[in-house]
């Protein structure tokens, strides 16, 4: 029986280099994350343009439509979904990943409906972002470090609290818990 050698999987850098257009728009209002993630994506072979606001992102899109985009969901001057729509209108093949500090099923569904290929919670690891951008199957690979059940619960509580305009009594009513219990949860740090 002949021995056949399996060709090794190409590295992430090789897969990025194989793309004819490696332009990437990184939109995030958190300067530390934007700088760190921008450098990590550049080191992997992307040509990164950074923006700190929806207005800066629209300006960047006037100069060049990127093949890839990593966009924050919530920004001081708007919502990253507007940028997803702006890219999708003019470049249907762009690969877009949404980032958010508020992991919620409703916002994930909205991001995917708008045209994002994946949705990651912050702080997102650069490797997870690249895997999501380069995923070729219908379902991207699961993250290396998924959120714990406690973190998912905490994120949900934070989201409802935000939707209730930081009204503790209304949030407690909607979540079906005692107001003091909610206050104790809100006073604690986020679980890992």
From TrEMBL:
Q: Which UniProt keywords apply?
A: Phosphoprotein
Modified positions (4-aspartylphosphate) in chain numbering: 72
Q: Which GO terms describe its biological process?
A: phosphorelay signal transduction system
Q: Which SMART domains match?
A: REC
Q: What sequence ranges are listed for the domain Response regulatory?
A: 23-137
Question: Coiled-coil region(s) at which residues?
Answer: none
Write out the GO MF terms: sequence-specific DNA binding
Concerning NCBIfam families, the annotation shows:
ActR_PrrA_rreg (NF033791)
**Name of the protein:** Two-component system response regulator RegA
Natural source organism? Brevundimonas variabilis
């Amino acid at each position: 029986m002949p021995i056949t050698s399996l060709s090794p999987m190409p590295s992430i850098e090789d897969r990025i280099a194989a793309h004819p257009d490696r332009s990437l728009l990184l939109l995030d209002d958190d300067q530390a994350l934007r700088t760190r993630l921008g450098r990590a994506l550049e080191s992997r072979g992307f040509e990164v343009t950074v923006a700190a606001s929806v207005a800066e992102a629209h300006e960047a899109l006037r100069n060049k439509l990127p093949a890839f985009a990593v966009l924050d969901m919530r920004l001081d001057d708007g919502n990253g979904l507007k940028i997803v729509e702006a890219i999708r209108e003019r470049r249907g093949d762009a690969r877009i990943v949404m980032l958010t500090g508020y992991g919620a099923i409703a916002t994930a569904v909205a991001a995917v409906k708008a045209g994002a290929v994946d949705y990651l919670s912050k702080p997102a690891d650069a490797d997870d972002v690249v895997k999501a951008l380069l995923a070729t199957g219908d379902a991207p690979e699961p993250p290396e470090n998924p959120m714990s059940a406690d973190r998912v619960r905490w994120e949900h509580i934070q989201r409802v609290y935000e939707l209730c305009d930081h009204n503790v009594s209304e949030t407690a009513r909607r979540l079906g818990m005692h107001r003091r219990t909610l206050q104790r949860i809100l006073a604690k740090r986020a679980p890992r």
